[in-house]
Design brief:
heterodimer, A: two-stranded antiparallel ribbon, two-stranded antiparallel ribbon, 56% helix, B: alpha+beta, 4 strands, 44% helix, 16% strand
Chain lengths: 121, 133
């Protein structure tokens, strides 16, 4: 079990998950008219909530994002349950989350850089 | 639908888009069948009406039911038509094309309005994210 307290590692896991979800959405849109296709999504937030313990440390091995089929959206007559509107909404949400993680990571690195520069002076 | 997170406005706007998409389907069925004198069951095509429904609280909209319009069929005088009755009238669907065009306009506008909400909310969240720069 590899537990970590590192914020950078957690944010990295989040970025990986959002990148994977972007692929899932692209796959859904590509299969918009494929008969019998059910949309896929990525499970990550649940894992994050579960693996965060009270000390704030996270077990990274349990944070691997997972692809699954929700099978909750109504099915069209060709057995397909992808709607373009839904995927666009998911894409917007995904990109906002992605931006959040990137900005947080950026901020973290800037803090480290600042600390380095103080020592160099 | 859950409405307790940052992204619920997006889910609500998407529900509006989906509902209007279905509404558009109903309207196009009505327009396509404006002159369908035989829709099975021995009567002409009956106009369909989309009924939207929503929970009491915040939670978006969905297409509840698609109900038939029980208004009277149009009677067109066409004695040479094989389906004409003794007086020479043919029953035609109870579809009023100008009304369908109005509904089409409304559906389009509502769809656009939902897209506008979606875009605006995206910009709002991006403004918040600017604080993280």
């Amino acid at each position: 079990m590899s537990k970590t307290n590192s914020i950078i590692a957690i944010i990295e896991a989040g970025i990986k998950a959002e990148a994977l979800r972007q692929k899932a959405i692209a796959n859904n849109v590509a299969n918009l008219e494929t008969p019998g296709y059910r949309r896929i999504d990525v499970k990550f937030e649940e894992f994050l909530a579960k693996s965060l313990d009270s000390s704030g440390s996270v077990d990274l091995s349990k944070l691997e994002p997972q692809i699954y089929r929700p099978r909750q959206t109504p099915v069209k007559s060709n057995g397909n349950d992808v709607t373009l509107e839904n995927e666009v909404g998911e894409m917007i949400k995904n990109s906002l989350r992605y931006t959040t993680f990137i900005r947080l990571l950026n901020k973290k690195y800037r803090g480290i850089e600042l600390a380095i520069n103080v020592g160099a002076r | 639908m859950k409405v307790d997170n940052l992204f619920s406005p997006i889910d609500i706007a998407v529900s509006g888009l989906q509902a209007q998409g279905k509404h558009m389907e109903v309207i196009s069925s009505n327009v396509a069948n404006a002159r369908t004198s035989d829709a099975g069951k021995g009567e002409p095509y009956r106009r369909l009406e989309a009924v939207f429904k929503s929970d009491d609280d915040l939670g978006g909209v969905e297409l509840g039911e698609i109900l038939p319009d029980m208004g009277e069929f149009l009677r067109v005088y066409d004695p040479s038509n094989p389906r004409a009755d003794k007086e020479g009238y043919v029953a035609m669907p109870n579809i009023n094309l100008p009304l369908e065009m109005m509904n089409l306009n409304i559906a389009t506008r509502v769809y656009q309005a939902n897209v506008a909400v979606l875009k605006r909310y995206q910009r709002m969240v991006e403004t918040t994210l600017e604080l993280l720069r």
